[in-house]
């Protein structure tokens, strides 16, 4: 599934294209102007790439995309089998309808294959920049321990520039990669609290992912059912942020904090809806049930 973001500026796009082709060692990544990701929006440039986190997200994303590809390939195989039988035994109109379905699935498979290849291409470029930065950092440390001369100072200055350039490139590639993460559809399934939840109790649930926020209020009814003012919210995943969930109980004008927890999104990159039960209190006396579909 794809998601949309506002675009990079022309200057940033040229800078990324130039930096990726700066050396023959670097990967030749053919990029359209990459779209901005959350941590680069509104001028908040944060030059702090996190290779280990990016690797985990990349592996989860690639696995999820391959799951979608396998599922649609299986659907195509099934439709193709029916297509052959229909051609011999069925009406012409039904045959053309089935042929239309097959072409639609084939187009989607090609899009998925391109999506996977683009993600792999970006991550390969990211790894190259990471290795170049590590090498320049190690050389910089070695030069800093040697006797100070004009040549060593010039080398240190050049290495410092190289480290900065590689760091900058990694951040912009993270932004380009983040565009391919899709979106999470989060559904509210209610609170679980056994004796802790009583008819008439009112709660507020606040879910945050980076700058994205979802605030909803619910009430425990007399038949122990729950009503919430919102049931679903779409979140755009990013590389560096976790879900933060805060639950408070509303008592008149007062609010009582029930608990705050964080939830990693790595396991959400899968074809099947993920049922999540989060312990809001330390003892687990109140839990929150959510469903996430990628």
From TrEMBL:
Superkingdom of the organism of origin: Eukaryota
Membrane-crossing segments per the record: none
Domain FAM65 N-terminal: 1-294
Pfam family, one: PL48
Family classification: Belongs to the RIPOR family.
PANTHER family, A to Z: PROTEIN KINASE PKN/PRK1, EFFECTOR, RIPOR FAMILY MEMBER 3
UniProt protein name: RIPR3 protein
Lineage, highest ranks first: Eukaryota, Metazoa, Chordata, Craniata, Vertebrata
């Amino acid at each position: 599934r794809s998601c949309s973001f506002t675009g990079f500026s022309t200057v940033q796009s040229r800078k990324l294209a130039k930096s990726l082709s700066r050396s023959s060692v670097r990967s030749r990544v053919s990029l359209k102007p990459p779209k901005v990701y959350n941590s680069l929006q509104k001028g908040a440039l944060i030059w702090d790439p996190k290779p280990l986190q990016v690797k985990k997200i990349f592996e989860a994303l690639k696995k999820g995309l391959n799951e979608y590809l396998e599922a649609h390939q299986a659907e195509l195989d099934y439709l193709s089998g029916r297509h052959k039988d229909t051609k011999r035994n069925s009406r012409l109109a039904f045959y053309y309808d089935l042929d239309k379905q097959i072409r639609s699935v084939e187009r989607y498979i090609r899009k998925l294959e391109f999506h996977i290849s683009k993600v792999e291409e970006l991550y390969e470029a990211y790894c190259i920049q990471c290795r170049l930065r590590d090498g320049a950092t190690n050389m910089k440390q070695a030069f800093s321990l040697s006797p100070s001369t004009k040549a060593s100072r010039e080398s240190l200055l050049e290495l410092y520039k190289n480290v900065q350039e590689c760091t900058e490139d990694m951040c912009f590639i993270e932004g380009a990669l983040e565009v391919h993460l899709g979106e999470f559809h989060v559904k509210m399934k209610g609170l679980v609290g056994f004796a802790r939840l009583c008819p008439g109790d009112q709660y507020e649930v606040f879910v945050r992912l980076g700058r994205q926020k979802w605030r909803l209020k619910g009430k425990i009814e007399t038949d122990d059912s729950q009503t919430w003012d919102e049931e679903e919210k779409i979140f755009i995943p990013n590389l560096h942020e976790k879900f933060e969930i805060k639950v408070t109980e509303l008592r008149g004008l007062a609010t009582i904090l029930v608990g705050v927890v964080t939830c990693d999104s790595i396991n959400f990159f899968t074809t099947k809806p993920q049922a999540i039960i989060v312990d809001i209190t330390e003892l687990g006396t109140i839990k929150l049930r959510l469903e996430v579909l990628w």
